[in-house]
Structures are given as structure tokens and as C-alpha cells.
């Protein structure tokens, strides 16, 4: 499978201007293979066609990597210290696993209420030898450890996402919500103590769809 998908993946990575090592590209393809294999057993995603998994999941998540890297670079950190990121409602690991592969300076926890999805992430962390990746089986509302970044993709409305994950966001942390079209209604429905400080448009290679990241912080 990887022989046919690799050229599209490499082209997409180049289009996104990402500087990934050959080992990271291999890991992305290995993750895709794991997702495809275990999807049959665990029902991790409704997307089943490998080519579609590549465009709709992998490239879609990869489009958010450069914005994340740019943000992380601005954060102070001691040598060897990783930036804690919580990916909420991660499902089969999107975008959390992609972030863990592409951003070794980030420590990614993927939380999901479905036990088999969290177990899949733990299994992926072992298979891909990613020490910066963890699967957590919980409702996000129950988490209180502070993270510098709290991300989500296809999870919930912005008001629900921010209120449920608020205790897990550091006071100086940021929410990073991956959305389709500019979510004007959801932004309008946010409470006054959530500040939307940037909405960043994304271009996903090989996918003709509107995508953006809504950046928010606590007031
Ligand atoms: C539509 S899926 C999105 C999965 C993945 N982020 C993606 O983009 O493919 C939403 C996920 O959120 C999880 N979920 C729903 N409510 C949750 C909660 N309160 N805490 C943690 N996970 C939750 C579901 O189990 C499901 O796996």
C-alpha cells in the first residue's frame, strides 16, 4: 500500500513546505497502515479507502502542522522539556498522532471516551516507538492536568470544546480547533471569557475543501 501512497504523501508534504525527515515520512505511512489494519476491528473511522485516508485524514492533519510548529517555537522551554498538547476526541489519532510524529518537541496526549480508540493510540505509540504519544481513556471534562495547547478536529462546537476542556488548558495556553468553513455562529456563541485571537485559513493538498484553525485563549 505504501508504495502507491508515498508519492502523493511526499508531494503533499512538499506543497505544505514541511521539512520532514525520511524517517518521519515512513512513520506517517506506518501509522496509515495501522489505522487501516485496526479500523476493521476497532471501527476507528468511517473513512476506509486508503487513498481517502491519506487525503482526508493524513494530509488534512498535516496542513495544521506548520501553524502548530510556528506557535510551539515561540514558547519558552528548558532543554529536553517537551510542550504538553492534549488532542481532544482524537478517535483514531487525528490529528494527535500526526502531531506526535512531526513535532518531537511536543508531548501529545490523545483523549477519547471510547476505550478501544485510546487503546489503539497506546498500541500505535508502541509500534511506532513514539515516546511522546499517549492514549487516555476518559471524558475530557475529567482531565485537569494543564496543557500548553489543547487541540481538536471534528470534535464539538467551539463553546462545548472550550468549556469541556477549560480545566485542561494552562492559563497561558491556547486552544487550537481545526474546523471546516469559518464557524461564524460558533464563534458568536462563545462566552466572553474565551478570546478568539486568530482564525487561520488552511490549504489541504489534494483536497478541495475549506479548512481553518480557530486559535483561542482564556481571558
Ligand atoms: C467525530 S470523532 C473525531 C475523531 C478525530 N478527531 C478525527 O478528526 O477523525 C469525535 C471523537 O470524540 C470522542 N468524544 C466524544 N465526546 C468526548 C468527550 N467528552 N471526551 C473525549 N472524547 C470524546 C468520540 O468518541 C469520537 O472518537
UniProtKB/TrEMBL annotation:
S-adenosyl-L-methionine binds at residues 89, 94, 140-141, 153. The gene is rsmG. Belongs to the methyltransferase superfamily. RNA methyltransferase RsmG family. HAMAP family: 16SrRNA_methyltr_G. This is Ribosomal RNA small subunit methyltransferase G. Keywords: Cytoplasm, Methyltransferase, rRNA processing, S-adenosyl-L-methionine, Transferase. It holds the Pfam family GidB. One of its GO terms (molecular function) is rRNA (guanine-N7-)-methyltransferase activity. Its EC number is 2.1.1.170. It is found in: Cytoplasm. The lineage of its organism: Bacteria, Pseudomonadati, Pseudomonadota, Betaproteobacteria, Burkholderiales.
Amino acid at each position: 500500500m505504501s508504495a502507491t501512497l508515498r508519492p502523493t504523501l511526499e508531494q503533499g508534504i512538499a506543497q505544505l513546505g514541511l521539512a520532514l525527515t525520511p524517517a518521519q515520512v515512513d512513520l506517517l505511512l506506518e501509522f496509515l497502515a495501522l489505522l487501516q489494519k485496526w479500523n476493521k476491528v476497532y471501527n476507528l473511522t468511517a473513512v476506509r479507502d486508503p487513498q481517502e485516508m491519506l487525503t482526508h485524514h493524513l494530509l488534512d492533519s498535516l496542513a495544521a502542522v506548520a501553524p502548530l510548529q510556528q506557535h510551539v517555537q515561540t514558547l519558552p522551554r528548558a532543554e529536553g522539556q517537551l510542550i504538553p498538547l492534549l488532542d481532544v476526541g482524537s478517535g483514531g489519532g487525528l490529528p494527535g498522532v500526526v502531531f506526535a510524529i512531526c513535532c518531537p518537541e511536543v508531548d501529545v496526549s490523545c483523549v477519547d471516551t471510547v476505550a478501544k480508540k485510546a487503546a489503539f493510540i497506546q498500541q500505535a505509540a508502541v509500534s511506532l516507538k513514539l515516546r511522546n504519544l499517549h492514549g487516555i481513556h476518559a471524558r475530557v471534562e475529567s482531565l485537569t492536568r494543564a496543557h500548553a495547547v489543547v487541540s481538536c478536529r471534528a470534535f464539538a462546537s467551539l463553546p462545548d470544546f472550550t468549556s469541556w476542556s477549560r480545566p485542561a488548558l494552562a492559563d497561558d495556553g491556547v486552544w487550537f480547533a481545526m474546523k471546516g468553513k469559518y464557524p461564524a455562529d460558533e464563534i458568536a456563541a462563545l462566552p466572553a471569557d474565551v478570546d478568539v485571537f486568530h482564525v487561520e485559513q488552511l490549504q489541504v493538498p489534494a483536497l478541495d475543501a475549506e479548512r481553518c484553525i480557530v486559535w483561542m485563549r482564556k481571558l
